[in-house]
## 1
Amino acid sequence: MLRLTENQIRFFKMNGYLVLREALDQRLCAEACDRLWDDPPPSFKKDDPDTWVGPIKEEEENPDGSNHKRSFRWQYRKIGDEPFMIDMLPGAMNGIAHQLLGRDRFKPIERVRGIYCTLPYGPDAERKPVSTHCDGHPFSFGCVAYIDEVPPDGGGFTVWPRSHRTFWRDFHSRYRAEYGPFYKDHAATFASDHVYDQTYGNAGDVVLWHHRLGHMASHNYSRQIRKAVLCDYVLKDVDILEEEPPGNDMWVDWSEEVRDVSGWE
Ligand SMILES: [Fe+2]
C-alpha cells in the first residue's frame, strides 16, 4: 500500500500539491484508455491522432452528462463506478487518504468522476492566457490521475504553488464556496504573476492537491488527448465542519500525522 514520506507530506503542506510518479497499476490505466473508445465522437479514429483535434464538430456534440462531448472537452463519466476504475484510483490512494485525513474519517469513494479529456488545440493554435480558481464543492484534497502520457503543454493540471495558504483565508466557510472580498483580486494576482507549475507525466502519475489550491485545467498544445481520472476525498463530518470559518490553523481537520510535520511555513 502506498504511503507518503514525511518529506512528501511537508512538500504537500508547503506547496498545496504533490506529484506521485507511477502510483497506479499500468494494466488498469491501459484498460481505462481502451474503454474511452467505447463511444467516441464518430469522426475520431483511435489510431489517427489527426482526427482528435478539437473542437468537437457541432453535429457530434453530446449534451448527456454520462459521456459529455463539447468543444475541446470530452468527459466519459459512465464508467466512473466500474470496479476496475475504483481499483485503479481510490484503490491505490486510500492508504494515503487514511494517512492524510485520519483512519476512516473520510467518505469511501464508490465512484470517480470518469475520464476527463482535453482535446488537442491543433498545430496552429494561438497560446491562450492562464487564469486560476478554487473549486466550489466541499472536499479536503483531490486526485488528478493521468492514465496516459501527458507531455509538457499537453493539458496537464496547472497549479499555483502555495496559493492554498492565501485562498484558505479568502472564504467565509472552511469548505463551502462562500467567497470573501479578497478572493477575486488574489486570483487575478496569482494568474498575472505566472508562478505556476504545469504538471505533466506518464500513465500512472497522480497529482494530489489541497482543496483551496488555485488551479486550472490547462490548454493542450500537444497532439495527444489529455486523459485524466479525477476523484476527491471528503470528510464524513464535512456538513458540520463547513459551518466553521477557516481560522488560523489550516490543518486543523487533517490527521495527527499531517499536523505533526513541521518546517512547511
Ligand atoms: Fe477547478
## 2
Amino acid sequence: MRAIQMSRFGGPEVLEIVETPTPMPGPGEVLVRVRAAGVNLSETLMRQNRYAVTPELPAVLGNEVAGVVEAFGTGVIGLPVGARVVAPLFAAGALVGGYAEYVLIDAGFVVPLPDALSFEIATALMIQGLTALYLVKQVPPHGKTVLISAAAGGVGSLLLQLAKHAEAKMVVAAASTTEKLNFARSLGADAGVNYTESDWVEQARAVSNGTGPDIIYESVGGTVTSDALKALAPLGQLVIYGALNIQSFQLGVPELLGLIFKNQSITGFAFASLLTPEKLKAGLVELFDLAVRGKIKVTISETFPLERVAEAHRALEGRRTTGKLMLVP
Ligand SMILES: NC(=O)c1ccc[n+]([C@@H]2O[C@H](COP(=O)([O-])OP(=O)(O)OC[C@H]3O[C@@H](n4cnc5c(N)ncnc54)[C@H](OP(=O)(O)O)[C@@H]3O)[C@@H](O)[C@H]2O)c1
C-alpha cells in the first residue's frame, strides 16, 4: 500500500510517499481501506518535533480515518467487509498511522458510519468534532457570552455551532481575517473580532456587553492568550485547549492578581484524556446525529490526494484554511 512516511523532522518536504506492506488483521482487529484521512494542526507540530509527544521515526502521521472494512481478524463480529466506518486511531492510543491507504485498528474502537454522512464529514467530526463537543460539555456555554479563537478553523467552526446549540447567550468569533470572520458569522456567530488588530481586546469587550466574554475558548496561545485574559469578564473562565504558541505566554504576578481580584479562572482542556471507549462512541453518535439532522454544518476546506500532503500541511500552517482539511487516498 501507499503511505506518507516521515524519516526525519522538518518542513513539509520530509513527508514522502512510500510503498509498504498492507497489514493483515490479527485477532480482534479490523483492516480499513481509507477513504478520508484527517489532517490536524497537531500533525504539523509533530512533523517539526514541536508537539508534546515525539513520534518514533520513521512515522506515518495521522490518527483519524474514515473508510470501508476490507478484512477482519478472528473474534470480530458486526463489522462485515464493505461496512462504512470511522477508525479513530487516536482513541485506540495510536499517535500515528492514518496517512495511508489502509489502517489496522482494534475492532472495539470502530464506529459504523450512517449512510447519510460522507467519509469526509465523518472525518471532520472525529478529533475536531469531539474536541468541540467535549469543550461545551466540560465548560457549558448555556446563558453565557463566549468568545472562540481561531473560530473559522476545524475545531473553532464546530465549537461555535455547538455553543449556539447549547444556548450560549452570545457567540463572538475571533480570527485573523475579515473573510474568516464572515465565514464564522455564516455559521451563526453573533459578532466577530479580528485579533490581529491592536485594539481587539477593547473590541471584544465592547461586543460582549461592555464587560467582556464570560468564557473564552482559546487555542492560539502567546499574546492571544494574554490578551484574552485582559478581555475576560469578571468571574469569567479562560479555557486553554491549544498550545500552538505556548512558549510565548507567561503567567506572572500581574495576571495572577488579575485572576484573584476579578474572581476569574483558567482551565486546561485535552479531549483525549476524557475519552473512554463508551464516551468516544456516544460522542461520535451524537455528532453524527447533529450533522445528519442539519444542526451543525461541517465545512471541508480542501481534500488532497496522498502525494500532495505537503500542500495540505503548508495550507494549515499558513492559516489559509477554514474548516477541515484531509487526504483522500
Ligand atoms: N486540547 C485538545 O484536546 C485539542 C484537540 C484537537 C485540537 N486542539 C487544538 O485546537 C487548535 C485548532 O486545531 P485545528 O486542527 O482545528 O486547526 P485549525 O483551527 O483548523 O487551524 C489553526 C488555526 O489557528 C490559527 N492560528 C493562529 N496562529 C497560528 C499559527 N502560528 N500557525 C497556524 N495557525 C495559527 C489560524 O486561524 P486564524 O488565522 O484565524 O488565526 C489557523 O487557521 C490547535 O491548537 C490544536 O492543537 C486541541
